[in-house]
Amino acid sequence: MSTLKTVLHPKKDNNGNTIFRLTIRLTVNRKRSYLQLLQNIAPEHWDAHAEKLNTKHPKHKQLNRLIRKKYGEIEDYILEMDSTNKSYTAIQVMDAIKNNKEKQTFFELAKEHIEDLTKLEKHNRAVSDQSKINRIKEFAKNENLSFEEIDEYFLKKLKIHLAGIGTISERSIMNIYVLIRLLYNNGIRKNLVDQKFYPFGKGKIKIKYPETIKIGLDEMEIRKIKELDLSQYPEISKTRDVFLFSFYLAGIRIGDVLSMKWKDVVDDRVYYKMGKNNKTVSLKTPAQITEILSHYKQDKVSNSDYIFPHFKNVSKKNSEKVLKKDSKKESKKIYTATKTQTKKLNANLKKLGIMAEIDKKITNHIARHSFGNIAGDKVSPQMLQKLYRHTHLSTTIGYQGNFIHKSADDALDSIITF
């Protein structure tokens, strides 16, 4: 069941005034989508009952023709879908009408995907996905690549090409496949390509990640780092604090540690939103965390200050009321600062490892692996799932499988007894 209606859609402009936009509203199964006709109309020029502009508007004839034209396009599309017994949603219909002039190519939709990520301030993902898209472009050598051209043969050849470069891992190739799959599904949803051309799934291209070995520090190595005298090395000492802060809180990601503020510590608990997926997390602050925090309290001016000094010069504004435009600029600055500071911290961790006489490669992410290694099978997977902030238990079990060796070791010892 679908219904069409032309309405004046109210919206606030930059000055806070209400403007009314000429809009066609489509409802399918009680879900709505809108097509803006890019015209602002005063209410006194609108006949709501007849759904058209009255004669008071100087361009009423032209705009009423535009309404009828768009109505016809939408009705023709729905009629075609109904005649072929294809299901559709309001969003799908409106997307098809918006792109009615010419179907978007794969790279045009990819560009739109990057723009959406940037608007959502997901800068890390935007940069990562843009890099993947550039790899696909290098191989395709076709700016106007259509979705139908991305078939099993194309994907197999792409994989061979990427593997031949020599610097791209199997996991990275699978991540490129995942991005192509995401964009292909978006293309199907927007009616840019028929489902029958979908190259992934049973009997087609399968995305399978290679097994990886995750190595974390053990208790003795964490103790060596903690007890190291760094009184003569203040920068490395601060790096150690960030690393241990992450470790003691079940491996908080480096970006979340650096962007943490004093207001996030309340009543001996840490509250923060994960940058990776926007999940809200609350964890108890162990005595070790309280000790680390004590090193930085003397520099605290307000609750809006960052706990660690690495973002000190990111923004001159610490006000809670930051304009939306300034907020977007600040998020980009934080992303850039995170990349820069992570590189510096990893360089310092390399020096720290040498000073502590630890042979393993130490990076900020190793704090998470180290927690998993020491946790082993001491607590249930369900509890570890909460500590790791994983959405699915299967993710926790797969992750923790890298660090649980006791059962297999005992089994091996029971067999090799001669």
Give a quick rundown of the structure.
By secondary structure, this protein is mainly alpha-helical.
How would you describe this structure to a colleague?
The chain is mostly helical. It has 4 domains: 2-98, no CATH class; 106-197; 219-369, Orthogonal Bundle (hpI Integrase, Chain A), CATH 1.10.443; 376-418, no CATH class. Helices cover 49% and strands 11% of the residues. The protein contains 15 helices and 8 strands. Strands 1-2-3 form a 3-stranded antiparallel beta sheet. Strand 2 (18-28) and strand 3 (31-40) form a beta hairpin. Helix 8 (234-248) crosses helix 12 (366-375) and helix 13 (381-388) crosses helix 14. It is globular and about 85 Å long. One of its GO terms (molecular function) is DNA binding. Keywords: DNA recombination, DNA-binding.
